[in-house]
Records
---
Amino acid sequence: MKRITACRVCDNSDIQPFFDLGNQPLANSLLSRADDPEGVYPLSLSWCSRCNLVQLNDTADPKELFSHYMWVTGTSSTAQEYAKRFYDSVKARAVIPSDGYVLEIASNDGTFLAPFVRAGHSVLGVDPAQNIAEMAQQLGVPTLCAFWGRETAERVVMQRGSKGHMVFARNVLPHVANTHDFVDGLRHILHENGVLAIEVHYAKIILEGLHYDSIYHEHLCYFTLRSLEQLLNRHGLHVFDIGTSPISGGSIVVYASAEARPETGALGEFRSREHAERTNEFPVWEGFARRSFAHRDQLRRLVASCAQTETVVGYGASARSSTLLNFCGIDHGLVPVIADQNPLKQGKFTPGSHILIECPESVMQRKPEHVLILAWNFTDEIVGVLRDRFGYRGSCIVPLPEARQLHGVN
């Protein structure tokens, strides 16, 4: 781990710590055996007094985090549906000529490039995880296995012989330690008439929805529109429009270009609302930390109460569930097993909490009375699976944005 001494966006040395979640394991470092040795690392946040970026104080080695990855986009039906809408949004804002191409950074299994492939566009994905890049290739999405930055951008331009008319990076910028090299690469690869789309989990939604479970070592930055614009502007990129996304419980998509374009009314309204609601101010983030500790105690009491006399299982061994379980002190003694439909995770154990992960069919054969929905941002999808596939009628514990129970799922 490397401790930062200045802001990751504006290099300001006045960064103020406000939330310490303790030492935690890397969220995606699943264990082959429950007693395998594992490391724990500091997990805490600071706020920048200049650009107002909320950010992690410590940086893990990206090769350890991303070279072999467990999250597969296509396993979520929500993501698959959103990929179609995302394609429509992009097409409404960008002109992709017949000899142009679409580039996605951190393209995972190619789910979001697939609609462009079906529409006849030339595409290229770039992803650092060898196992996921190979999966995308098998699904018919050309993918380069590499970490993104200026060097990789120059390599792609040389190989393709041109720059991209549509470039997008979804849910990746917050993972990046060297934000400037990453955005410099985006600027270099983007055609002068092209459009760049960047999607990030929106810090205002994290703040208001108490999404402290989205804080883990992979997520180094928690962007507002203000902090994201400041980063892009430093590299000659101009935001002209904004949209929203259901991913991660609530994200924003900013659209930018190399040449300044007329800004939409939606963008101006978004800026004004963010300012009026004090999203970028330090006291509201101090309040976020206080509320998170109170929620932690409430959720643990609820789960422990249910587990006293009945069986509680988990559903969704997402990365964010690692923070929630470890921060709240919920381990295999309270929740013996978690269902997850990703075969890469099945048979492994969660980091820190040491809970076995199995396929949903095996977990539901245990006839649990309670299901703790750890991937709570997919609650509707998971409740539908429990009801329709397994005929489940017990209670569902939904941890966020407030801990609550859904009785008699219907």
---
Amino acid sequence: MFILELISSPVKFIYFIVALIIGITIHEFCHAWTAYKLGDPTPKKMGRVSLNPLAHLDPLGTVFLFLAGFGWGKPVIFNPKNFAHEKKGIILTSYSGAIANIMVAFIFSIPYRLNIYFNFGLENTWFYILFDYIVNLNLILAAFNILPIPPLDGSKILYLFVNEKTMAKLEQIGMPLLFLVLFLSIFLNFNFFILILTYIVNWLLYLVRVFPASPI
């Protein structure tokens, strides 16, 4: 399991924790900041427009990151009725977290690109390895959250096609269905989520690192 690999290497464990804190904090902060800027004071009142990691870490989501290699932060509560354009506000607020993770990955991938272009020989330096963890974990968070499965962030695009009542019903069954597929994947030894996430992450890596070849 993923956690066994981390425990076996204290250095990898530290890198993972740092990457985890950065990824989840930025992701949830951007949800809260976007909702606040679009006119909803709810995240601000709940202390979520903050870069304090303690405001954003979700115990269950963190456990899943250790066990399964993907997870989530504490959901940001917002009231879309406060947005000037409700559906647009929901979609922008929901996707802002994943977009922020991709931007963080792009910034922290700069040493990779410089190393490729100028052959600096940075591969074994501590910051290069740490930055690699940050890039990969941020892209995993982005990839997982853009899946169009309620109640994940990516599902909010469905607001363009269904009404609020239908969306509420989809979100009620979405999480149990998500866990069911996850446990079936583990039971059948065919991890559907990891397969999909790996494909998405490889494409995102191709974009943020400007790979010279296709990720396929």
---
Amino acid sequence: MNKQASKPIHSNEYVILLHGLARTSRSMAKLEATLQSRGYKTLNYNYPSSKYDIEKLAEDVISDALSKCIGAHQIHFVTHSMGGILVRQYLSANKIENLGFVVMLGPPNKGSQVVDRLKNLPGFQLLNGPSGMQLGTSDVSIPNRLGAANFKVGIIAGTRSMNLILSTLLPGINDGKVTVENTKLEGMSDHIALPVMHPFMMNNKVVINQVLYYLEHGVFKR
């Protein structure tokens, strides 16, 4: 059988990619190209992640992204870090009728202790903006106010760090920005931890293959 012909075709499915805090859409380019090679239509959305608070970013960015998914049978999301919190924020107040699957890479779903420890240091808010200040672990932080997932979401956590200083601020196994435990979300349909680092996990071949598998099966490959 021709292997190329046997690949699933997803031409009526869109994937919206949302990068993380202080990053750009370029960070998701390799993942986007792989999704396109599988037949998905993609929207790799570049947004000013450190300019506004999470509530405004979620409403403005996702509303605009959805308006560009013309004729989509299903709309999926693949997010990195804070991008996953934007999806949670949007879905807490809005419904997407043709929502498919959501895959989150390294999301601070319970916040990050790094923010708790560094948010009062000079320059932190200047670098990370109002959205970065909202990603702590307190009960009133945005991630902890949003509640359980009411959508199908698979989460990939990292277990390696390139920043040993930040890792000392994190209790437990972590990717240098968020602990494995704090990536978890009540109501998630699957969760997997892989030996990857937070800044580069979206470019890792194993991670990309797991994203593809989840979008097709609703679970990760074991």
---
Amino acid sequence: MLIFLFSASYKYIIKPLFFLFDPEKVHNFTTSFGEQIGKFKLLTGILAFFFGKKSPALKQKINGINFDSPLGLAAGFDYEAKTLNVLHSLGFGFQTVGTITHLDYKGNTKPRLGRLPLSKSLMVNKGFKNKGVHWTSEKLNHINPIIPFGISIGKTNIKSIDTQKDAIKDILSAFKIFEEEKIKNSYYELNISCPNLHGSVSFYPTKNLDELLTAIDRLNIKKPIYIKMPINESNQAVKKMLDVIMKHKISGVIFGNLQKDRNNSAIVKEELKWQKGNFSGLPTQRRSDELIALAYKHCGKKLIIIGCGGTFSAEDAYHKIKLGASLVQLITGLIYEGPLLVAKINKELPKLLKRDGFKNISEAIGSGIKN
């Protein structure tokens, strides 16, 4: 009942108020507000008592990491490590910081965020806006995580890094610094699929991808690495990428990143008012689900699959799990449904599992396509 009341308050009072203001300013306010709440253990404890409870049916151990919930915050929301001490109290099972790059980047030209309410989407054009690996590692050094967190790493978005060789060197530098600082992250994400970067360096061609992953292999990183994948490549191209990935020390893949296709059927054309940027939320949902299923069929249990894109309900999350996702990440659903969306999904998922005869969520993974 409490979740319902707070969710209704967000939908009818808080969200309409937020939507009167610039989305990037609202985003900055939200992350800063979350950081302040996280400083008070009593307050986060009260929130966790009401909204952070999770059924034992949702617990999994994946790549040696204990997840109390399959729901996590995707990269792209918290690139200054502000919410690490508060998200557990809202029911999250894990979160990703970043994307972080070797050098800092102030972000692409504004506007960097836009809302498409009818499309249940956000226009995103940040281009790996972050304060760089040195600043981030210093901050993360003082954090004892309550839930597993990962660090998303990508290529620094500056024009001078314009060759494959330079891009690989730049990415390796970020990995090396985080490893040397012995940050308490549980995993890494390698973001090769951001569509808002300068230059023409691409890791989609299998030769380029193989070269990058070979270089990362040599770092001998013990923590799991998951690759953030594109959703606009063809099935055949994705399969070729997966074949390369399975040859390396990579634990899994994330499907996927932003929607580049402005003719996507989920986008209401009247809402398109930006020349640049790509789209999150509902426009990514169908292709994300297709690629989760494709990867599960193609790779089996060789790679962990994390679903990302268009999760607005327990049914959406469960659908990705039944298609082969072990974990599910989200951001846009929080903007449209409210910060208690994860608590609501945590409450409803066990009912869906019970309905289908599963005792644990791990039993449901891939159950929708095995036959």
